[in-house]
Specification:
With about 300 residues, the protein is α/β, with parallel strands linked by helices. It has 10 helices and 8 strands. The chain has a single domain (about 5-255), classed as Rossmann fold (3-Layer(aba) Sandwich). Pfam families: adh_short. InterPro entries: KR_dom, NAD(P)-bd_dom_sf, Peroxisomal_Beta-Oxidation, Sc_DH/Rdtase_CS, SDR_fam.
Length: about 300
């Protein structure tokens, strides 16, 4: 019971990865705020049914949960999500920023609305909910954030400029929270999940290579991400903050973070011509290739 006595808000927990994390945290002893607007993958519509299904599962297993259907994408509604935890259970200890939508589109065809809507839910939503919880975390001098990033942002992917930018931004947000709130014993970490869910069901499967990739992903259920989320939210991870992890079937990965890898020096400074003549050849072997997530994680999950 790693989370005995703790209260967790799990956004986007009406299904998929969020539901499995909510179930696992409840099984570990936490009281859960199930936040979900019940929208489609693209963010349209509203339904309380997904959240109600998660609540029923938690209660069938002896846990406690309440439902909140506020959007993460607005500051005032994000504050209501966090206040729901305090009003219902007296405190808040854990925030899992999992809510998300997809509006995939090749970059040169992406509309401003497709860009803004994804940024609003993923990046703004992660900030708003975290910022609302930070007030309570500071006063009690404890708390944990678990944010969902993605290899689409950490590595790259086709047709996901909006999603990739948001997810890489979340990694930077998490690091900033970890630095700024360390003095209050608050931790912030990221998970880059691998799982077959609504968020991956839209991956194209037209070519033989794409079909093979989708088949690999389909083997990884959303529940594979829950143990890591429970660990990171618990006191067992009290020394872990500012890190990025990925669970992939039975594998766990720790991601590196951007650091200088090569340098060159010119005593008299640089001209464009000297950069082309000296710096480019020195740097070329260190260039990061234009990989996609599927190129880097190319082996079958076991």
């Amino acid at each position: 019971m790693l989370l005995e006595g703790k209260v967790a808000v799990v956004t986007g927990s009406g299904g998929g990865i969020g539901r499995e994390i909510a179930l696992a945290m409840a099984a570990a002893g936490a009281k859960i705020v199930i936040n979900d607007v019940g929208a489609s993958l693209g963010g349209e519509g509203f339904s309380a049914s997904p959240a109600e299904q998660t609540k029923a599962l938690i209660e069938q297993r002896g846990g406690q949960a309440v439902i909140n259907t506020d959007s993460v994408a607005e500051w005032e509604s994000a504050k209501r999500i966090v206040q729901c935890a305090v009003d219902s259970f007296g405190r808040i200890d854990i925030v899992v920023n999992n809510a998300g939508i997809l509006r995939d589109q090749i970059f040169h065809r992406m509309t401003p609305e497709e860009w803004l809507s994804v940024i609003a839910v993923h990046l703004n939503g992660s900030f708003f909910v975290s910022r609302a919880a930070a007030e309570f975390y500071r006063k009690q001098e404890s708390g944990s954030f678990v944010h969902m990033t993605s290899t689409s942002g950490l590595i790259g992917n086709f047709g996901q400029a909006n999603y990739s930018a948001a997810k890489l931004g979340i990694a930077a947000l998490s690091k900033s929270i970890a630095l700024d709130m360390k003095r209050y014993n608050v931790r912030s970490n990221c998970i880059a999940p691998f799982a077959w869910s609504r968020m991956t069901s839209s991956i194209p499967a037209e070519t033989p290579e794409q079909k093979a990739r989708v088949e690999r992903i389909a083997r990884m259920g959303p529940e594979k991400n829950a143990p890591l989320a429970v660990f990171l939210a618990s006191d067992a991870a009290k020394e872990v903050s500012g890190q990025i992890f990925a669970p992939r079937m039975h594998e766990l990965f720790l991601f590196n973070q951007s650091r200088p890898i090569k340098s060159v020096h010119s005593e008299n400074g640089w001209t464009p011509e000297k950069i082309a003549e000296i710096a480019l050849p020195a740097f070329r072997s260190g260039f990061t290739p234009l990989d996609r997530s599927g190129d880097v994680f190319s082996w079958d999950p076991v």
